[in-house]
Amino acid sequence: MTAYGHWINGAWRTPEKGHYPVVNPATEQVVGEAPEATPAEVAHAVTAARAAQDGWSRTDPRERAAVLDRMADLLIERGGELAALLQAETGATRRIASTLQVTPAVDRFRRYARGAVEPDVVPLGPRAVKASSLAPGGLIGAAAVRRPVGVVGCITSYNFPVVNLAGKAAPALAMGNTVVSKPAPQDPLSCLELGPLFQEAGLPDGVFNVVTGSGPAAGEALVSHPEVDMVSFTGSTEVGKKIAESAGRSMKRTLMELGGKGAAIVLADADEKAVTSAIGAVGSVWSFHSGQVCTAPTRVLVHRSMYEKVVTGLTHYARSLTVGNPVDNSTVVGPLISAAQRDRVEAHIAGARDQGARIVTGGSRPDLEPGFYVVPTLIADVTPDMTVAREELFGPVVAVIPFDDEDEAVRIANGTSYGLYDYVFSADTGRAWALAGRLRSGNIGINTAQRHPETPFGGFKDSGIGRDGGSFGLHAYSELQSVVWSS
């Protein structure tokens, strides 16, 4: 078992307050020990990032691209070791840890290696300007130029620690920013491992730093530090609002990817293909990291004429999934991240039952010990006012709600404080496209749960502020500067 230090200015730093245990959600055994940060240690990391920022921002973009490409190569080379650690600390299945953690992280470093050399100047046509009391007239040229923000604090979520950090650090570094990362307390070890890999890839010391902590203190110190120029956060809406309040005091830039309560809308005209797609997409709530995914369609809004058919299909799907130890290749549904999260999900299931909903399947713990497991659960006869239809559960639980017409479906879908990712299933994609325009959601999937890597990703309402992904990620981690000259 390894006891880690903070990664600051290109070296491991022994924590002043010692360590805290990181627990495997499947075995309840300690995987390793993470450092407990003090505000002074966070400040040390920020100081290192600030000192390195000017030099890194003036590095040739081709060199920044080369570093990110080498980082991708190293992730491929060490992917097996990193996936094993990810699997142990997150409780993800082997398939999720390897193909949906390490592989997408490689893709993101590759993408922003290309992004580092994307044009960052938008030339603007010259204008003839009349003389004024400020300046003589003339032909005035101009350009809009993307510049680095500066020091970026990256605070990441527990469900996909490495890929989430890669999605923040890669575009931030590509744009010439420096980074101080604060991973989620539940599974920070794989993020700490990125420090030495970056150094091996040729990243200058101080450009990428990692500090960790078991509670909110480290994140609060990072957000409030006056030398941090931007905070990029993925996590709950509740925490996001606190970060935004703190960041606002010093006008820090923020990028917030917060909670979701995705709706999968199955229209009356859905044919067999659309219904099958809907069931598969909704089934990902159970099969994809035990529902610990912010984009998951945890609400299924079904036209009443299709209601029983969809409920029956979802029931068969849920009952077909193997729940078990994530290191077993036959396992599809592993544990939740912690006992506290399991208890929270179970409380929501019990609350739905008490409010009159019907637990079609699941709703209990499997006969598995140790581990923080919840059986895939389908809840039918849910009404839009029930808590299970309004709050993000972050577990393998699906709520099904009937509707009578499209207007009602739109009201229900838009009736929560969230607006991250919704889905529409129909035999008529034109009809689905038109309905998508009425949904207050940052992302819409039509007859699919697939993502497009170049689309802007983010949410409406309480689901966040700003967009990343593709070239939009480069915009997110840059400031626009206007440069004007006399021709």
How would you sum up this structure, described in words?
By secondary structure, this protein is of the alpha/beta class. The protein folds into two domains: 2-258 and 463-486, 3-Layer(aba) Sandwich (Aldehyde Dehydrogenase, Chain A, domain 1), CATH 3.40.605.10; 263-456, 3-Layer(aba) Sandwich (Aldehyde Dehydrogenase, Chain A, domain 2), CATH 3.40.309.10. The protein has helices spanning 39-57, 61-77, 79-90, 94-115, 161-174, 189-201, 217-224, 237-248, 272-287, 307-319, 339-354, 406-413, 429-436, 470-476; strands at 2-3, 6-8, 11-13, 19-23, 30-35, 121-129, 138-148, 151-155, 178-182, 208-210, 230-234, 253-257, 263-266, 299-303, 358-361, 377-380, 397-403, 421-425, 443-446, 464-465, 478-486. The strands form five sheets. A seven-stranded mixed beta sheet has the order 15-16-17-14-13-18-19, sandwiched between helices. The protein has a six-stranded mixed beta sheet with strand order 10-9-8-11-12-20, with helices on both faces. Helix 3 (79-90) crosses helix 4 (94-115). The longest helix has 22 residues, at 94-115. The radius of gyration is 24 Å and the shape is globular. InterPro entries: Ald_DH/histidinol_DH, Ald_DH_C, Ald_DH_N, Aldehyde_DH_dom.
